[in-house]
């Protein structure tokens, strides 16, 4: 399966990346292709709401920036994993911009499954991000939710948490 991970953390050795790496190790071990796009290293502007994509653009966004790379990866992705630290009870702005720009393509053709990975300092701060994820991907796009994984405080980078992510990756076919 082609798995696309959108990493919303700006920290290259941070807690979210640790979870992504463990997940990717497990998923690759059982034969999946995993592509990680670090959206914070990209120039992805927010959606302009101009509706060019749904009129003259025929599914293409009027803004030509690094979102083009995400659009191309989405065309062949069968599973989408959103991964983000919690910033003020939600996704990072960079990841939210990439999600909003998906408006242009609606539901990518090959996409069937999704999952969510979240890191935070405090516990019980996930409701906003989970609500956004569930309504946008499993419900609005009709994807199968394969799981939601969170790590807060001392759980971040713990062997227990990383094993959980590795094991999850290994279940995917
Ligand atoms: C701008 C900003 C906002 C944050 N907001 C929250 C928050 O609302 N709740 C929380 O528990 N942690 C919050 N944090 C802490 C991060 O979610 C936490 O440190 C996370 O593990 C960072 O992940 P990373 O290492 O992958 O970047 C915030 C951090 C920053 C920089």
Description:
The chain has a single domain (2-170), classed as 3-Layer(aba) Sandwich (Rossmann fold), CATH 3.40.50. Helix content is 35%, strand content 21%. The chain contains 5 helices and 5 strands, in the order βαβαβαβαβα. It has helices spanning 15-29, 67-76, 93-101, 127-140, 159-170; strands at residues 2-7, 33-38, 79-85, 113-120, 144-152. Strand 3, helix 3 and strand 4 (113-120) form a beta-alpha-beta unit. The chain is globular. 36% of the residues are buried. The structure holds flavin mononucleotide. Residues 9, 11, 14-17, 85-89, 119-122, 125, 156 line the site of flavin mononucleotide.
Q: Report the helical percentage.
A: 25-40%
Strand content: 15-25%
- CATH architectural designation: 3-Layer(aba) Sandwich
Strands across the major sheet, in which order?
Answer: 2-1-3-4-5
What topology emerges from the helices and strands here?
Blueprint: E1 2-7, H1 15-29, E2 33-38, H2 67-76, E3 79-85, H3 93-101, E4 113-120, H4 127-140, E5 144-152, H5 159-170
Parallel strand pairs: 1-2, 1-3, 3-4, 4-5
Helix pairs in contact: 1-5
Flavin mononucleotide binds at residues 9, 11, 14-17, 85-89, 119-122, 125, 156.
What's the short version?
This protein has helices at 15-29, 67-76, 93-101, 127-140, 159-170; strands at residues 2-7, 33-38, 79-85, 113-120, 144-152. With 173 residues, the chain is α/β, with parallel strands linked by helices. The chain has a single domain, classed as Rossmann fold, CATH 3.40.50.360.
